[in-house]
């Protein structure tokens, strides 16, 4: 009886390996599902690129061509007059320089503040670490609309209203909350053996930060810097409130103020949109490799 039960168990379909035909069907199903997912992702990507494509073809399209053929058709000839008129009419060089200075300064200062705060929380192991991290997490979830009036009063009383310095300080502090939360989670799992070896060699806290922590967290900081730059470049609300003069306006504020002016001229509006998108796109393409390297290293850790 025992031998019969063992033979039945050996030949039972639940324990037998799948037949080659079954394996082929499974592989075919996996390949079909992979192609479905790839098709959906490609479709979503095309939908996201479609507005950019519309801005590109209409920015270099003559106005009569737009009226005759519509916004989706390719231009019959390249016309740079709308882009040139917009660039010179709004002093776009000044707006572009303001955005580069503000975004670059915010990215650098916010990353530095994030590293110092995260070093104290993640490696220094200060008391109340969990509550401090919860406070930082709460800080970057507060909407800007709730902060705009206190920030307006603060910058006005300190003489920083309508200055790029005031906007840089505010945005750097606000964005460093997210950077501190992210870096603290990374430094909280930092190998203690490395830190102990550095202390045994006589390294001070600053030397540990500069010679040990900084080189190992550089990819993560590069990711944060890229995010901070693009977020600041696209920020509209706070610069709109705190930078009312035309000389201090950023690209996003200038485009928002000019959208009503160019509503009757869609080619000029497309040229303005293209001029505002291209710098951030170029910055992203330049740092794409650094961004992906940092994301991959973070995933491996």
UniProtKB/TrEMBL annotation:
Coiled coil: none
Location of this chain's protein in the cell: Cell membrane
Membrane-spanning residues: 32-56, 100-123, 130-152, 164-190, 211-233, 268-287
Membrane topology annotation: Multi-pass membrane protein
Ranges for domain ABC transmembrane type-1: 96-287
Alphabetized UniProt keyword annotations: Cell membrane, Membrane, Transmembrane, Transmembrane helix, Transport
Chain positions covered by the region annotation Disordered: 1-22
Family assignment from sequence similarity: Belongs to the binding-protein-dependent transport system permease family.
Listed PANTHER family: ABC TRANSPORTER PERMEASE PROTEIN MG189-RELATED-RELATED, SN-GLYCEROL-3-PHOSPHATE TRANSPORT SYSTEM PERMEASE PROTEIN UGPE
Name used for this protein in its record: Carbohydrate ABC transporter permease
